[in-house]
User: What shape does this take?
Amino acid sequence: MNILRGHVEPILKDALNSIGVNDSNWTSMLSPSREHSQGDLSLPCFPFAKQLGKSPNDIAEELSNIIVPNVAIGKINAIGGYLNFKAEPKWLAKQLLSGKIRVGDAFGNKPHTGRQILIEHTSANPNGPFHVGRARNAILGDTLVRLHRLLGNEVRAEYYVDDMGKQVGVLAWALDNLSKQDVEDILQDKESLSTKWSDKADHTRVRWYQAAQKLRKDESKSEKIEQDIAKLVHASEHGDESVLQKFHDSFQPVLDGMLETLSRLGIEFNQFTNESMFVTNGDVAKLTETLSKLEIHGVADNGAEYLDLGARGMKGKTEFFFKRGDGSSLYATRDIAYHIWKWKQCDDLINILGEDHKLQSKQVGMTLQELGHKVPEVLFYSFIKLPEGKMSTRKGNVVFMDDLLEEAKEHASQIVRELRTKYSEQEVSHIGESVGRSAIRFNIIKVSPDKGFTFRWEEALAFEAGSAPFIMYSHTRALSIAKKCIDNGIDVDEISNKELDLDSIDSELPDSLIDLLRCMAIQNDALERSVMQCRPNLFANQVLNLATSFNGFYRDCKIFDDGNVNELYLQVSQLASQFLKTGMEGLGITPLERM
RNA sequence: GGGCGUGUAGCAUAGUUGGAUAAUGCGUCGGCCUCCUAAGCCGAAGAUCGCGGGUUCAAAUCCUGCUGCGCCCGCCA
Assistant: This one.
């Protein structure tokens, strides 16, 4: 609890000095209390024991006797070698209700930190529909974008489009050379296209891609096809405008389909950058020239060039090739050019990548360093697999995001229909869509990115405690209270803005109200930590805790009772709904009026 | 073989810079709707934090060995 820290540190410093502790190592030891019931900030006194020749218990006890609580500190106690500080509830309430603690707003007016962050995420090759395996990147990336914005950073979300090379080459070749009938004949043993998505180009065109991939494995035909594709790829890598245009026309409808899916998940981009740009504008040529002059540069027998990163401490495979024998560039080379370009446009650079890109990313980072550039921050995530094993389009072992979204919406709508029989079908649909989308996102962000993730339908569609709908539900409860007050002729806005004299309240505040205050007071701490550590799950956890605290408050603190409004409770409830709302925006969960 | 990551109740996970009685959800068992939305709340049972060693006043957390799982080790992307 950082807002309390400022009030504790000065007096703690004096107290420690007076008993003979003069260094300042203790500031990092003062940390959020593990035992919530004991305090908000705690200082373990064990390290002082040897220095002072007293038991940790006695030291904590002594300190608690010396320190005189101030307005912010409610209670000080010494237990088991810990010195605990508890924020004074009414002080906490005043801080929060006076608006001194920024609630945060991901999309509206908020203080700017002035930092420009460029986050590149998703960047999936545009050759087929978005499946759940790819979704972890997009959802983590977009959540990070939102969290940075909530913190006040200026963020550009960027999609790097692979518009050249083999994958698009295959797609372009197939569209040029295969008829619809050819494709269906080739794929006759495969499941046919779901009629539901027959108008979506990512679903339709991927069949051409799959058909071509199958033909390429057929030995009688593959040689000619490989030659044709190689010709296209080669041309694209040398910046051939007409081939690049052909590629563009092939993949753009697919990309549009994928973006439609992403948009449904609440994911949008500020900019799309084509990989080919760095070939056509000469950046790659300049780069390879520079790399060729580096000290750690080497040349293979056939003229291919590499850097020996082993000379800079790289373990394992140390040769990093940036130029082929035929002189053309490689994906990683273009990625380096892309990074140099990106660095000119931001203060911080973050990439979201699958764990399979770790080596590649390390090579790019070390090369950037060798060239005197900064190394980007990278968030790696482990793959999503299905209970049946690895996700594979080839084996038909995939879950398409479009299908998951539909399923989640239908499932949510069904629940609404059962629970709220009076809602119109239009409202049911709106709630279903919002709940489905939010639940899918939350299901993925709440777990740590570096842990493996197994996609299970039951879990994706579980809308109970620990899910997005649970958070959404708490939020609508708060709105529904406010609505009830308004319906009873109470001016909620006026009460919300009123300055209450909390000191005139004689009684203690209820525990669950205090819990809620404490939870709100650490919201920004959690946000900062989540952003700093590049781990959205930390903030997801905070918002979940906030919703739980709100439910406790809701249970114990009656706001509108017997025609009377408890003004403090109403203010707290209104504030909590703001905290919940901005927290949800940060996570990409859609706040609803009612559900 | 080498490199990187990971292993926490039946299942899925959280756990801050090492710090108190390891937290949450699902599932199981038992309660709560004449009371602002029960997608909720309260309670119970359930853990050798993969295994061994080490560092430390203190280890799920740091170091080391072993082991299971994942990813990578292309002049592919």
